[in-house]
Amino acid sequence: MFENLSEKLERSFKILKGQGRITEINVAETLKEVRRALLDADVNFKVAKTFCDNVKQKALGQKILISVQPGQMMVKIVHDELTELMGNANVDINIKGNPAIILIAGLQGSGKTTFSGKLASHLKQKRGKKPLLVAGDVYRPAAIEQLKVLGQQIDVPVYTEEGNHEPVKIAKAAVKHAKLMGHDVVIVDTAGRLAIDQQMMDEISAVKKALEPQEILFVVDSMTGQDAVNTAKEFNDRLDFDGVVLTKLDGDTRGGAALSIRAVVNKPIKFISAGEKMDAIELFHPSRMADRILGMGDIVSLVEKAQEQFDVEEARKMQRKIAKNQFNFNDFVQQIQQIKKMGNIKDLAGMIPGMDKAIKNLDIDDDAFKGIEAIIGSMTPAEREEPSIINGSRRKRISMGSGTTVQEINQLLKQFDETKKMMKMFSGGKNMMRMMSNMKGMRK
Hints:
The chain is α/β, with parallel strands linked by helices. It has three domains: 3-85, SRP54, nucleotide-binding domain (Four Helix Bundle (Hemerythrin (Met), subunit A)); 100-285, P-loop containing nucleotide triphosphate hydrolases (Rossmann fold, 3-Layer(aba) Sandwich), CATH 3.40.50; 303-438, Signal recognition particle, SRP54 subunit, M-domain (434 Repressor (Amino-terminal Domain), Orthogonal Bundle). 55% of the residues lie in helices and 9% in strands. It has 21 helices and eight strands. It has helices at 3-13, 24-40, 45-60, 70-85, 112-127, 143-154, 167-181, 198-211, 226-239, 256-265, 286-293, 299-308, 312-323, 329-341, 345-350, 355-358, 370-377, 381-385, 392-402, 406-425, 432-438; strands spanning 100-106, 131-136, 158-159, 185-190, 215-221, 243-247, 269-273, 281-283. It has an eight-stranded mixed beta sheet, sandwiched between helices. β6, α10 (256-265) and β7 (269-273) form a beta-alpha-beta unit. α2 (24-40) packs antiparallel against α3, α5 (112-127) packs parallel to α6 and α7 (167-181) packs parallel to α8. 39% of the residues are buried. The model is unreliable at 358-362, 427-437 and 439-444 (pLDDT under 50).
């Protein structure tokens, strides 16, 4: 996400490295590169110009503390300005209503249907809601079936009307059904449409008028860059939507949509989405995104993901076992499972400050712990409970069962012993990322 932009911004700050103070000349040189980086990222030209003008004004008016280097001060100013550009603060969706109605709009292929499923899962799992998905795309042949499949995955019902090709009637009937069945949120997936298609734009305007939704979300494929921003403006003129969703942020995105859209349409980005998994959805926090763009990581989001999987009672049991030196491979696997539930391993590691560069060219996928789990799965219950009994013949049997070498078994056992010692030293609770670090170089 924003990899090229991050690298170019970092290079622009190096102009100030070694400079004793901020001057109009070195600020101008730095901002020339910053502007170029933004334009290369497909940021709107006017937005990039205003951004650089604001940074220049703040930089030249800044009193530099003796303990702060000019380069560091410039990074802070750019960070603050990026945060301001993207909206300054997180804006939540409005789910008040009986039921609350959320209308999903956007271009063809922007990821509306997948996002509708992700949003339903998010509201169910994290907000305690009882959502109903509505298949309002009557034009794309596979749209209804796709939504049904997603609904089954997340155990959320999908309202459809076979043979009905009138989105307004379908949506109104779905709301009545939701009230009858006790659903407190209705998410209406609509057909993708072009802003120049007058008939289709009239249709979604009619759906809005009929439903009077609490929330209209405009879904944007972030890979379309500046085109997405122009389209958003045209949609906003017709729908006056409440917020923006950026999808496909795991693709080859240059970041222009994220940085421009808030300034152009004056509507907040509310969610970001990456990948096909139903839990691959995040609330958008401008400050945290600025952190990621400037290579500062995103520790707050990482901690939040950890807390979602954190069981207080289990943690206390684990801490007691660690204190008594009773931590075994069953516990080890349990810890790995918790890490895996948090999301993609490479994405998680990238949230740690400085790690994004270290793992840039590493191929870390969701099967990063596959080799370790295969080894542990080939152990007997007694071996998992008491690893010290694993002698030479047992290691040979485990290697044959797991498709690994004896050397890899030895490596895991050695690293397991080191992890146990380290965890005992830190009394548990704060070992998750250290454990991940300890796994570096293990067979995938």
